[in-house]
Design brief:
It is a single chain. The longest helix is centred in the first third of the chain and has 6 residues. The chain has one domain. By secondary structure, the chain is mainly β. It is built from one helix and four strands, in the order H-E-E-E-E. Belongs to the alkB family.
Length: 78
Amino acid sequence: MIKRFVKWLILHSTCIPDSCIVNIYDEGDCIPPHIDHHDFLRPFCTVSFQTESNIIFGTRLEVLSPREFSGPVSTPLL
């Protein structure tokens, strides 16, 4: 997958990750808004395998319901 990301210019060839985190969620679960620790180098890459969700970015996020959030930038994970 990483080789494809480099080929498709999603990741630069000088920025190949050497680790990953895999999160497994039950249907209806979500990850709440958070800030990744500054020790994690940028850029980061998020891959969703079995869901069509949005990832929301911003400094002012709004909680619409326990599992629904809003922010200034929303990008679909298809």
